Amino acid sequence: MRVFHGIIEIAGQMGILSGAMKKRGHIAVGYNIFHSYLGYQEHLINTVQSEISETSKHIMNFFDIFHFHYNSSLLPNLSDLPRLQEKGKKMIMHHWGNDVRFHGQARENNPYVYTGDSPPDEVMHDRLTRISASIRQAIVQDYEVYPYVTPYYEKVHVVPIAIDIRKFVPAYPTVYKGRPLILHAPTNPLFKGTEFVEKAIERLRKDYTFDYKRIERMSNVEATKLYREADIIVDQILCGSYGLLSVESMALGKPVVTFIRPDLVSQFPPELPIINANPDTVYDQIKMLLDNPHLRHQAGINGRKYVEKYHASDVVAERVLAIYENL
Fold first, then answer.
1. 146 pLDDT above the threshold of 90
2. In degrees rounded to 5, what are phi and psi of residue 256?
3. Neighbours of 305 (CB within 10 A)
4. Closest-CA residue to 7 (of 58, 60, 57, 67)
5. Which H helix or E strand runs over 158?
6. Which of the residues 34, 162, 241, 286 could staple to 316 if both were Cys, CB 3.0 to 4.6 A apart?
7. Residue 153: CB partners within 8 Å, gap ≥ 6?
8. How many other C-beta atoms lie within 10 A of the C-beta of residue 123?
9. Using the 8-state DSSP alphabet, how is residue 207 labeled?
10. In this structure, are residues 87 and 59 in contact, taking their beta carbons and an 8 Å threshold?
11. Do residues 112 and 238 lie in contact, with contact meaning Cβ atoms separated by under 8 Å?
12. Are 121 and 75 in contact (CB under 8 A)?
């Protein structure tokens, strides 16, 4: 198969999936117009919208499958979608959260959620309506995103975030470390709940000895080197689900603190090892980890096993390829 991924790279997923598909003998590449300090490069053509528009006819003719991401397609006005449909090309849309997180709907089940990164509801509705007129199926990463898009598509698949597990050698927290390191890496502090995390950190400093690092505006490669040093990683405590940092941290054998909405807990595999915390409980959950070095170590081991089973790129790519076959 010849697979096009595009055109907005979120959390390295286009490149990771393309790489895993190439290993299986397929032609796969991500065309990316979203450039950030995270610095994703592998299996990507980092370009601009105008260049994609200029070569869109060639792209449409060459590729068999069009795996679009984050409410985007080849052309800004989505006019390529009916044309691809006419050509009989297989298409699927991959939604990642902020592209479809309707503001009021998000607050129905989550009093903590931050939706400031999402467009106005009417903009998301219009775009989803136009996309689903040509694309019949979609992928989401979890059941937090799922209900926002199910009204628009004939079928929505839940496929976990993928990582190249070979790049993450576990470094489990030692139970003998007297001054553990807590790490928090917000790409957007408002979305991640950084204010509440750091209030809890300041309270804990009164009774505990530890180090704290806040990592920002650093490439993914550089940041991953620092994650290896951590004993506890606090990710997002507002959204209600976990993201790439949680997955990478678990792959490195770290205990991860993240908020999983109570109504969604049962939708994840029962062995999900995340330490569940929201703004009201994050102090107590970090305190529990500081009090229990053996728990930190075991949570790290459990996290690595979980990622190997559910998030390894080879596992995820097989699921995506099976979806392609049945489009």
1. yes
2. -120, 130
3. 15
4. 67
5. strand 155-158
6. 162
7. 93, 132, 135, 136, 137, 138
8. 11
9. T
10. no
11. yes
12. no
Architecture of domain 166-310: 3-Layer(aba) Sandwich (3.40)
Question: What pLDDT, on the 0 to 100 scale, is given for residue 44?
Answer: 77
Report the mean per-residue pLDDT for the chain: 94
Residue 120 carries which DSSP code?
Answer: P
Judged by DSSP in three states, 137 sits in strand
Q: Which pLDDT score, from 0 to 100, does residue 38 have?
A: 56
DSSP code of residue 37:
T
Residues written for the chain:
327
Cα dihedral 260, 262, 266, 272 sign: positive
CA-angle at 178, arms to 233 and 254, nearest 5°: 25
Instruction: Indicate where the chain has its CATH 3.40.50.2000 domain(s).
Output: 2-162+312-325, 166-310
Tens of pLDDT, residue by residue over 171-222, are: 999 999 989 999 999 989 999 999 999 999 999 999 999 999 999 877 777 8
pLDDT digits (tens, 9 = 90+) for 23-66: 999 999 999 887 665 556 677 788 999 999 999 999 999 999 99
Inter-residue contact 255 to 295 (CB < 8 Å):
yes
DSSP strand pairing (211-214 vs 181-184): parallel
User: Which residues partner with 111 through β-bridges?
Assistant: none
Nearest to 96 by CA among 306, 239, 278: 239
H or E, element range at 18: helix 13-23
**b/e code 12-41 from CB counts within 10 Å (16+ = b):** bbbbbbbbbbeeeebebbbbbbeeeebebe
219-256, pLDDT tens digit by residue? 777 888 889 999 999 999 999 999 999 999 999 999 99
The torsion defined by the Cα of 149, 115, 244 and 139, in degrees rounded to 10, comes to 10
Q: Report how far residue 97's alpha carbon sits from residue 139's, in angstroms, rounded to the nearest whole number.
A: 11
CATH superfamily of 2-162+312-325: Glycogen Phosphorylase B; (3.40.50.2000)
Cα 181 to Cα 105, 293, 306, distances in angstroms: 37, 12, 23
